[in-house]
Hints:
In the C-terminal section; belongs to the alkylbase DNA glycosidase AlkA family. By secondary structure, this protein is α+β, with helices and mostly antiparallel strands. Helices cover 46% and strands 10% of the residues.
Amino acid sequence: xxxxxxxxxxxxxxxxxxxxxxxxxxxxxxxxxxxxxxxxxxxxxxxxxxxxxxxxxxxxxxxxxxxxxxxxxxxxxxxxxxxxxxxxxxxxxxxxxxxxxxxxxxxxxxxxxxxxxxxxxxxxxxxxxxxxxxxxxxxxxxxxxxxxxxxxxxxxxxxxxxxxxxxxxxxxxxxxxxxxxxxxxxxxxxxxxxxxxxxxxxxxxxxxxxxxxxxxxxxxxxxxxxxxxxxxxxxxxxxxxxxxxxxxxxxxxxxxxxxxxxxxxxxxxxxxxxxxxxxxxxxxxxxxxxxxxxxxxxxxxxxxxxxxxxxxxxxxxxxxxxxxxxxxxxxxxxxxxxxxxxxxxxxxxxxxxxxxxxxxxxxxxxxxxxxxxxxxxxxxxxxxxxxxxxxxxxxxxxxxxxxxxxxxxxxxxxxxxxxxxxxxxxxxxxxxxxxxxxxxxxxxxxxxxxxxxxxxxxxxxxxxxxxxxxxxxxxxxxxxxxxxxxxxxxxxx
Length: 493
């Protein structure tokens, strides 16, 4: 699959006729005779080809007057994999919109973060997605509103503002226009609802493209969990979240067809951002079929892929936090890195209340870490310099790590910092920046796997061999790591 698939009418028609869920999120089918739009896997009888038109986004469908299908609920399909495998202007803009930047800072704020004019951003989004940033943000608000209407007993006025609408009237008009039902009827039709109605408490399902192998994904998060910030409990990965309007606690549980997500938020306006960051953490918008197909073409990787297909890259909910933890993990064991991080959390993290107990703090913000006494850090002097330089660059804004990061530019900035070599930069690129092609041939686990599998073990030779895995080398890393018995590769019992 590739960018602009919606322009390939014949291919889209085949996908709709086969009801192929793999294409959900890549394009949307608008039906001229009914005025609705659907995901490709919609269970209804496919319309005649002459009655179908295809759009690249839900917002584009809404822009020209189509309403969301009540059967397949296209607004709840996984996001397009394009936005997580590209680093161009459109992809970076889409990641920022998903992170709620347009709602908080407007289109000028979006453009400023990207380093372009508002006109350039609007023109490129319209050309590729058929909708500008305001329409794309509006579609996201509508989806958030529907989620709150159907899964909580909150008053509609509270839902309107929590979803990001400026007024109750706009909320009512948008919901009616997008879903062809008023909010009250959406709630009445919901199959079930969380009866408690506790402000900030939500349970929802995060969809993904199958297959999804949870072993290394949740195994990695659990094995590296920082006490007080993260934990594995009762089959769920739990952690605290630093969010624009407040904080949150999330519990994520793998299931065969979805990820169960339980969110407790101090401010419901953070719902959209929290969901976006959890999806990013678990790499849920990836296209595992396309990734595994390419990696399987290598006869050495093929048995690894066939044994456990659908491995994802464990990412992060906070890019600056991960960068700090990457430095703490330089040349030490996983246990030692957790110990260093836990000390920082206890001394400098912000306390939070966990209704279920177990979690106690938010990971310290760069500003708090920049103010600490370097002599209090129990690490070698050179790594102490690396740590303090990083947190000062983050705190003063000279280095910005986020979904809007330009990958090559950010790599160059990181490499210029003292103590930052290729391994540290690439692990940050893979897990924090989200580069699907990040690769670090000097990693001990990668070199050990290479030797066992008969791959070249020297960095230069292994890099040359890995050229065939591009642009999915970060996923190849997951399969190579999985040959080892390290706890990161196994779902906790």
